[in-house]
UniProtKB/TrEMBL annotation:
Zn(2+) binds at residues 124, 127, 195. It comes from Arenibacter aquaticus. Belongs to the GTP cyclohydrolase I family. This is GTP cyclohydrolase 1. PANTHER family: GTP CYCLOHYDROLASE 1, GTP CYCLOHYDROLASE I. The lineage of its organism: Bacteria, Pseudomonadati, Bacteroidota, Flavobacteriia, Flavobacteriales. The gene is folE.
Amino acid sequence: MKIDALVASKEKTATLNGFTHGEIGDDHLSTGLETPMKSEAFALSDSEKKERIAQLFHEIMDVMGLDLTDDSLKGTPERVAKMYIDEIFSGLNPENKPKVALFDNKYQYNQMLVEKNITFYSNCEHHFVPIIGKAHVAYISSGKVIGLSKLNRIVQYYAKRPQVQERLTNQIAEDLKQILGTNDVAVIIDAKHLCVSSRGIKDDTSATVTSFYGGAFSSPTKITELLNYINQ
Ligand SMILES: Nc1nc2c(ncn2[C@@H]2O[C@H](COP(=O)(O)OP(=O)(O)OP(=O)(O)O)[C@@H](O)[C@H]2O)c(=O)[nH]1
Ligand SMILES: [Zn+2]
């Protein structure tokens, strides 16, 4: 989205139903990395969204011929709505962005820090079925140190959206770069897409690997060091 359009959409959102969102989705990320969202994305409150999704999912189930008076099925539309908004797609709402604790690098630790094997569950934006994988994130401090758990939380925040793996990788990397004030950030994601394994081509053995190597991580020596840590 162009800068003018971003500013216009921000102003529009700020006036919507008194909502005070300073951003729609990912305005803080660089152009082109945002999850595509419409400017009215936050016109409805979370509880209004859940009510509407439940009605619509009820209709989908009804069209499929399911008996919605059955005691096992009748609560499903509400369960799905709650799961979408409060759980698996909660990362669409910037209000759920993790608060990040930063510390001064008093420890004078100047090598890479790797948080590896971060398990995440996301969902493919083409089929709305799970992507299950591990993310490995690394950075070299430029003066600030981030609380370890915040690295995991940032991964989970961006995973809890309809995603493609390439965007998930770059969104995590871009956010870390901005938070840490450095380009020396790397992200590797190794994931299974259920849209590839459980349907369609039904290949249960393949996996998808994506990476982002910024700043010092573009050197082959650093990449080798990083991969050695991850494969230990
Ligand atoms: N690049 C990329 N593609 C993805 C990702 N997740 C799913 N896809 C692909 O998105 C594509 C959507 O292609 P379509 O041909 O429109 O969908 P489809 O008819 O269901 O395709 P099949 O999965 O081949 O049956 C598929 O090839 C998926 O494998 C992802 O994270 N990144
Ligand atoms: Zn898919």
